[in-house]
Amino acid sequence: MTTGITTFKSFLRSSIVTPLHRLLNAVDTPVIVLLYHRVTTLTSDPEQLAVTPENFRSQMKFLKDNVPLARFDDDWAKMAKPAVIITFDDGYADNVREALPILEEYRIPATFFISTGTIDTTGHFWWHELEQILFDTVQRPSRFTLQHDGRTTVWPSDTGEKRREVYRQLVPLMMEKDAESRNDCLSQLRRWANTGEIIAHCHRAMSLAELHTLAENELVTIGAHTVTHSQLTVLPPNNQREEIVTSKHQLETWLGREITTFSYPFGKRCHYTHESITACREAGFTKAAANFPGQIHRWTDPYQIPRHLVRNWSITHFERKLQGFWTR
After folding, report:
1. Are strands 143-148 and 151-156 parallel, antiparallel or unpaired?
2. What is the SS3 assignment for 312?
3. Which of 136, 191, 240, 266 has the fewest CB atoms lying closer than 10 Å?
4. DSSP string, 35-52
5. Can you give the residue ranges of every domain in the chain?
6. Paired sense of beta strands 151-156 and 220-224, if any
7. Average pLDDT in the 274-279 region?
8. Pairs from 250-254 (Cβ < 8 Å, separation ≥ 24)
9. What is the DSSP letter of 72?
10. Which residue has the higher pLDDT, 123 or 221?
11. In this structure, how many other beta carbons lie within 10 angstroms of the beta carbon of residue 67?
12. Which overall architecture, per CATH, does domain 2-121+201-325 show?
């Protein structure tokens, strides 16, 4: 491990290997933001959102030993050295139960972007209900018929592999829908499976008490992440504004403090619009995080901050990926 740390520090000192990045970094100190969703151990994770506590601890220790760690709401223009920032999206309960103790262990600050619609409710994120219904080994009807957007789509569903294919096709389809249309799809799926709403404790969002526990920690910054975690591109401007502003006001009411940062659900450039950016600025947010790779410099648009998505990587793989993040 000592050799790996020495190599990584040498890499940062020579930063960066391409002429363009060497020039950019000579002009302005780079910052990179890492994006996590969950820290927990799951038996099934088709969206690859979870990092095990063991891998997360190794990743945080590596960062603590090697690079300056900053806050998302810091003034990055004042950074004297390349820095890394930790962020989480969505608001899973395991952020409090499993991620926070590790962050406290290494005294690492982090920003948690919270989707308010599932906080302190029995609801959870729709992709988990899809997974639980379609990946279940219980016998299901041989065909699933979905009425949506004025048309009918039929999938064979008589085997586990065919149901997994239904899942793979339903996820992008439902990403393109607003909350009401998604709920209608879920209702049709429940009727097909002859089941009620499935609640899995391992996938639940934070309770309000857990959100307060998180927010009261000195290492933590809370940001907004809409109400219903809908892709903003599919919503008209007024609905986008409502999602953005309502999530900010709800968090401020719950926590009694101003919320100044935001992240776009899903976060690729195709998942938000110019109207989304305008709504964030007018709502009083000072920064908004996206989900595409890139370094941050003082000329980076504060309403389109790039982030690097972290998967459940071993420390060796994490180190290799992190080196690449400084050049992308």
Report:
1. antiparallel
2. coil
3. 191
4. EE-EES--S--TT--EE-
5. 2-121+201-325, 126-193
6. unpaired
7. 98
8. 250/116, 251/114, 251/116, 251/222, 251/224, 254/119, 254/208, 254/211, 254/212
9. T
10. 221
11. 18
12. Alpha-Beta Barrel (3.20)
Query: Residue 78: what residue type?
Result: K
Strands (DSSP E) found in the chain? 31-36, 38-39, 50-51, 69-70, 83-90, 110-114, 143-148, 151-156, 220-224, 261-263, 287-289, 308-309
The verdict on pTM exceeding 0.70 is yes
Q: What amino acid occupies position 321?
A: K
Q: What is the mean pLDDT of the chain?
A: 92
Residue 113, token pair as written in the block: 């972007």
pLDDT in tens, 228-271: 999 999 999 999 999 999 999 999 999 999 999 999 999 999 99
Q: What is the pLDDT of residues 27-80, one digit of tens each?
A: 778 899 999 999 999 999 999 999 999 999 999 999 999 999 999 999 988 887
For residues 143 and 205, give the distance between their C-alpha atoms in angstroms, rounded to a whole number: 32
Task: Give backbone dihedrals phi and psi of 81, rounded to 5 degrees, phi first.
Answer: -135, 160
Residue 295 · residue 328 · CB < 8 Å: yes
pLDDT band for position 21 (cuts 50, 70, 90): low
Give the Cα separation of 242 and 282 in Å (integer): 12
Q: From CA 50, how far away is CA 36, in angstroms rounded?
A: 8
pLDDT by residue (tens digit) across 98-156? 999 999 999 999 999 999 999 998 878 999 999 999 998 888 999 999 999 999 999 99
CB environment 135-167: b (16+ within 10 A), e (fewer): eeeeebeeebebebeeeeeebebeeeebbeebb
- What percent of the chain stands above pLDDT 70? 92
